[in-house]
Amino acid sequence: MDFSQVLARRRMVRNYTDQSVDEGALDRIAASALRAPSAGNSQAIGVVVVTDSQVRSDIAHLAGEEGYVSAGFDPWISGAPAHIVISVSETVYRDRYAEPDKLGPDGQVIEWPIPYWWVDAGAALMAVLLTAVDEDLAAGFLGVHSVPDLANTLRLPDDHIPIGVVTIGHPAPDRRSGSLDRPKKTKGSAIHRDHWGEDD
Amino acid sequence: MDFSQVLARRRMVRNYTDQSVDEGALDRIAASALRAPSAGNSQAIGVVVVTDSQVRSDIAHLAGEEGYVSAGFDPWISGAPAHIVISVSETVYRDRYAEPDKLGPDGQVIEWPIPYWWVDAGAALMAVLLTAVDEDLAAGFLGVHSVPDLANTLRLPDDHIPIGVVTIGHPAPDRRSGSLDRPKKTKGSAIHRDHWGEDD
After folding, report:
1. Would you call B119 and A163 a contact, using CB atoms and an 8 Å cutoff?
2. Scanning every residue of chain B, which has its alpha carbon at the shortest distance from the alpha carbon of A46?
3. Is the pLDDT of residue B200 over 50?
4. With contacts defined as CB-CB under 8 Å, which chain A residues touch B121?
5. How would you write the pLDDT of chain A (200 residues) with one tens digit per residue?
6. Inter-chain touch B163–A34, beta carbons under 8 Å
7. Residue-wise burial string across B73-103, b where 16 or more C-beta atoms lie within 10 A, e elsewhere
8. Which CA distances in Å does B113 have to A36, A118, A133, A144, A145?
9. Residue of A nearest to B26 (CA)
């Protein structure tokens, strides 16, 4: 699909048909996470692709699916035929930046003004969401309240933290998030030239 | 351009020709940042597009371009005809999640197990990097050591933190980052099925 079309179509879809997802598509979606940049080429992103129905049910429970359903949403988490969980290791970034070529001019480990492990994980998330659209599938995303429980369920290494769950499937009509009723920020208020506010 | 081609071509380019960047392309690249997801539809991403040569020089200085050049790199920051700086406001997220529809079951503001403002900013960064490729341009990315100085230079609102600088231009031959000599992580070590490690 044309890139601009993929970008324009991306939206969170919170309901799926019961049709399974092609394994080749799942592989390509998962692999796209590794196309995101990583500070110092740390390569500290992990991806767990979940199709096992028991694991998907466990994840749905951790994500509070009961709450969604009682609020009138579809059981879109357990109902998604696949979940993709992106995790990241801050430890790998810190170890990488303790290597000689990354030390500061004084030979000390640099301060991290921005936690790039989260930024890079977000870039990987965007790659996954867009690739799902490119595969003619739909994707949603949700955080979980208990990150340690999700990490345990997926048997992640101790240093890996899962950023949330991407649900993947063939789109079904869904209930829109109430958050979408919030006024849409105009481009003019978000995008500025040379300095913030100069063109307002 | 086809999405899969855009994804495959994305890489950090650290040198540009002196050809300027089409204004329409710059607009589309900047606008793509707003196509990233935002938790609770917080819409707390800001984008500053910089083409003014004095501001670009100031940014290059803050980013330590002198250090890059003395290490044998091209002056790729001041030399990039455009910079795009993505910023994010944690405050907007926290205010959004203090609204009634986002309170926890006990009526309290939720804990943030993952700082989604960084994750969402990373998703916006990925959109910008990919859209640059789609526009047949090249992009690089760098953090700056003094985030407050960058924020001041761009006159960002007090609550906005810039995550770094995307350099945009027409690609010129560049010196590869030494980080690329690190062994490439295999898909098998990063991507797992149902549980981490089950398929290793």
Report:
1. yes
2. B190
3. no
4. 119, 122
5. 999 999 999 999 999 999 999 999 999 999 999 999 988 888 899 999 999 999 999 999 998 898 888 888 889 999 999 999 999 999 988 888 888 887 777 778 777 889 999 999 999 999 999 999 999 999 999 988 789 999 999 999 999 999 999 999 999 988 777 777 888 888 888 999 999 985 54
6. no
7. bbebbbbbbbbbbbbbbbebbeebbeeeebe
8. 23, 12, 28, 8, 7
9. A193
Closest Cβ–Cβ partner in B12, B185, B191 for A49:
B191
CB < 8 Å to A105, chain B: 67
Interchain pair B192, A3: CB under 8 A? no
Domain ranges in chain A?
Answer: 3-174
From the centroid of its chain, how far is CA A103?
Answer: 30
Q: B38: closest CA among A84, A180, A146?
A: A180
Tell me the nearest-neighbour CA distance from A193 into chain B, angstroms: 5
Q: Which numeric CATH code is attached to A3-174?
A: 3.40.109.10
- Identify the CATH class of B3-190: alpha beta
Angle at B131 between CA B64 and CA A26, to 5 degrees: 110
Its ipTM equals 0.93
Distance from CA of B146 to the nearest CA of A (A): 8
Chain B CB contacts of A45 under 8 Å are: 190
Q: Give the other-Cβ count within 10 Å of B164's Cβ.
A: 21
State pLDDT tens for residues A110-142.
Answer: 778 899 999 999 999 999 999 999 999 999 999
